[in-house]
Amino acid sequence: MSGSQGGQAGQGRPRRLAVLISGGGSNLQALIDAQESGTLTGAEIVLVVSNRADAYGLQRALQHKLPAIHLPWTKRSQQAEAEEKLAALFALFKVDLIVLSGWMRIFTPAFIERYPWRIINQHPALLPLDGVGDEVITSDGSVIPALRGLHVVGRALEAGLKVTGCTVHYVIPEVDAGRVVCRAEVPICEGDTEEGLYERVKVVERRLIVEAVRRVVNGGVPGAPPLDPARD
């Protein structure tokens, strides 16, 4: 997945996306809709993979005639084989960018290091712009904790925060610690439940994932290299 051709997606062919999911695929649908409407240019979805056979996102892909593959990986013992199969798929489909959209598996450091600056992930909380540290400065100058890992929507409520949000970031071996591609805030309202707040976060996520892919493929992420195409 490396090449000497450089620059933005406007130079040469559109960048080829693999979208990895574990569930319903609402953010995958947002990408599909943006691609089909022409609002996401310079990128095309060429592969959808789920580690769960019952993930509705696979049906979404098939409805739009996109290659959709179930790759069994629900147990730790399946990880090594799954990662090798994924690598083969990425090579076969000449994938330029890997989009983790509700993908509930954590890759080994060795796998991540095969694809530097080529994996992005959605996270339902705000993270530091440079990926470093345990605090986030919000738009009004407030300082809140950076919530990494699982159950972050509930943890935001438990911490009594006034604002949370969602982030799309580059993936590095450390969990939820890569440079931010883009992020957006979601206010926490009095009486919010975890379920209700998460629904509002997901609405923003659907817009944010499209903007994130647009920025990556067009070289618009400060501090990140341009996304070169894979070798044909």
Report on this model:
The longest helix is centred in the last third of the chain and has 24 residues, at 194-217. The protein has 232 residues and is α/β, with parallel strands linked by helices. The chain has 2 domains: 14-115, Formyl transferase, N-terminal domain (Rossmann fold, 3-Layer(aba) Sandwich); 123-200, 3-Layer(aba) Sandwich (Rossmann fold), CATH 3.40.50.170. The termini are close together. α1 (26-37) packs parallel to α6 (194-217). It has helices at 26-37, 56-63, 79-92, 109-113, 152-158, 194-217, and strands at residues 15-21, 43-50, 68-70, 97-100, 119-123, 135-137, 143-145, 163-170, 180-187. The chain contains 6 helices and 9 strands; from the N terminus they run βαβαβαβαβββαββα. 37% of the residues are buried. Helix content is 30%, strand content 21%.
